[in-house]
TrEMBL record:
UniProt GO BP: folic acid catabolic process
Gene Ontology cellular component terms for the protein in this record: cytoplasm
Name the UniProt record assigns to this protein: Peptidase M20 domain-containing protein 2
Family: Belongs to the peptidase M20A family.
Pfam families, per database record: M20_dimer, Peptidase_M20
Gene Ontology molecular function: any one: para-aminobenzoyl-glutamate hydrolase activity
NCBIfam families: amidohydrolases
Lineage: Bacteria, Bacillati, Bacillota, Bacilli, Lactobacillales
Domain Peptidase M20 dimerisation: 172-259
SUPFAM superfamilies reported in the protein's UniProt record: Bacterial exopeptidase dimerisation domain, Zn-dependent exopeptidases
Length: 392
């Protein structure tokens, strides 16, 4: 009996789920943080090798990788993204081990049917989502320039199609004063005073910012000893807004505030971008409709529509400016489990995690099948992308 393409996809995911959960468990047991995921990269690349992909390790960034399968026939280029970095202390508290399992499962399934249609399949290992933005480096290097659609699913406490994310501009302010004995303060200039005043002054910008702007910072260095006027202090800030243009506008206001404070305190200052800036995410509604349809077909319920209000930032934003992109969500725990917790990490290796992997990989696979079967659908998704980008 010959299986239909759809049956092949569904069965591929189900029949190999133990192997995928073994990958998920291995990552859970050996969590590696961003840019240090060498063993995880080797684990995933090894799997893709055996599944017949042409792989490259250390792709674009040291822990990035790609698995390619080219049918040699004309057709679309589909990219499935795998995140796989962990967090300090809470391990896979963001569930990126499950994202990798879902991506590998989707890749292996689609590889079995893509020859019937033509095109090229990429499984892209995008490291360091939490801190250094592997997708930003990869997008900048052109990895997604010729990609027709990029997809992934993130685990969480709900089923959904994702949506907007905030643009993030990470800025460090450093203050340089003059150290002096605590009882001879007139001989010094306090970098800490400038940092504290800047912190307060930047807080005042909030009231005059557009909705959904988030300004949050910490005093990173504030001196070493109470009897020394601090000669050095620093602040680290995240300026988040619905668009990068606006995040930069807010950053410029903060810069002016800090400039004034530095002058008033007789210190100098320097600012720098201390982490990778993240773009906001461009939503593709037709792609969101497609994943919703497939999730429903698989019996998933309570599928949240496009999230119009950003609840954080992600390096997926960078990809979403290059090609139609979707980051869906799959429920593996209840709402009482927060992101970036040990409980979330535990959920990835639970029965719900396993079920989530199956449904998410099947949902992505069926979505990709539809794009391969119906070029007009893909064309409409690309047209929406072009129009959205042009309107910005
Ligand atoms: Zn995450």
């Amino acid at each position: 009996m010959t299986l239909t393409a759809k049956e092949t996809l569904l069965q591929s995911v189900e029949n190999n789920v133990d192997a995928y959960m073994h990958l998920v468990q291995t990552m859970y047991d050996n969590p590696e943080i961003g840019n240090e995921e060498f063993e995880t990269m080797a684990l995933l690349v090894d799997y893709l090798d055996k599944a017949g992909f042409k792989t490259t390790s250390g792709y674009i960034v040291p822990t990035g990788f790609i698995g390619e399968y080219d049918t040699g026939k004309p057709g679309p280029t589909i990219a499935v993204m795998c995140e796989f970095d962990a967090l300090p202390e809470v391990g896979h508290g963001c569930g990126h081990n499950l994202i990798a399992g879902i991506g590998i499962a989707t890749g292996e399934a689609v590889k079995k049917i893509i020859d019937q249609f033509g095109g090229k399949l990429l499984v892209v290992g995008t490291p360091a989502e939490e801190n250094f933005g592997g997708k930003v480096s990869m997008s900048d290097a052109g990895v997604f320039d010729d990609v027709d659609v990029a997809l992934m699913v993130h685990p969480g406490s709900h089923n959904g199609v994702g949506g907007r994310s905030s643009a993030l501009n990470p800025i460090k302010f450093e203050f340089f004063g003059k150290t002096a004995h605590g009882c001879m303060p007139q001989a010094g200039a306090s970098a800490l005073d400038a940092a504290v005043m800047s912190y307060l002054q930047i807080n005042l910008i909030r009231q005059f910012s557009n909705q959904h702007t988030y300004i949050h910072g910490v005093i990173k260095d504030g001196g070493e000893a109470a009897n020394v006027i601090p000669g050095y202090a620093s602040l680290e800030y995240y300026f988040r807004a619905p668009t990068m243009a606006y995040a930069k506008e807010i950053t410029a206001k903060a810069m002016t505030a800090v400039e004034g404070v530095a002058l008033a305190n007789g210190v100098t200052f320097k600012s720098s971008v201390y982490e990778c800036p993240y773009d906001d995410t461009v939503v593709n509604y037709l792609l969101a409709d497609l994943l919703t349809e497939k999730y429903e077909e698989l019996g998933l319920t309570d599928i949240q529509p496009v999230d119009e209000v950003a609840k954080g930032s992600t390096d997926v934003g960078a990809v979403s400016y290059k090609c139609p992109t979707i980051q869906g969500f799959i429920k593996i725990c209840g709402p009482e489990v927060g992101a970036h917790t040990v409980e979330m990490a535990d959920a990835t290796i639970s029965p719900d995690g396993k079920n989530g992997l199956i449904k998410a990989a099947q949902g992505l696979s069926l979505s990709i099948l539809e794009l391969l079967e119906k070029p007009e659908k893909l064309a409409a998704i690309k047209q929406e992308f072009d129009e959205t980008i042009a309107s910005m």
